[in-house]
Design a protein that fits this description.
This protein is mainly α.
């Protein structure tokens, strides 16, 4: 019985988190304008770069995470760890972070 539990529990946990979602879409013009207001220096181009980097890197090791399932406050730490694993620089990490947070806001998450 103990052997069954030891084998089953890791698989149960791996299916629950992170939630997998379809690839996120590009941001609307309103979300781009809102992001530029929230983070000075963020542009449509940097958000597009963040989107492209997210698509190119996040699905390599795992499925695309459900962006709304993880609160805003946790994303900086998550992306810090994932950027290191993906060998991304600070500018690339920040582009992904701004895209993720703007996408979450566009989807109504906070």
């Amino acid at each position: 019985m103990l052997a069954l539990v030891l084998v089953t529990v890791p698989f149960m946990g791996s299916g629950c988190y992170p939630k997998v979602a379809p690839p996120p879409v590009a941001l609307s013009a309103n979300s781009v304008a809102s992001a530029a207001t929230r983070w000075p220096g963020v542009t449509a181009g940097s958000l597009s770069t963040g989107h492209d980097l997210f698509l190119a890197n996040c699905d390599v090791c795992h499925g695309y995470p459900d962006l709304t399932a993880i609160p805003d406050a946790r994303w900086p730490n998550i992306l810090e760890k994932m950027a290191k694993k993906s060998h991304l620089g600070a500018e690339e990490r920040d582009a992904i972070l701004h895209f993720v947070l703007a996408s979450r806001w566009e989807q109504g998450a906070r």
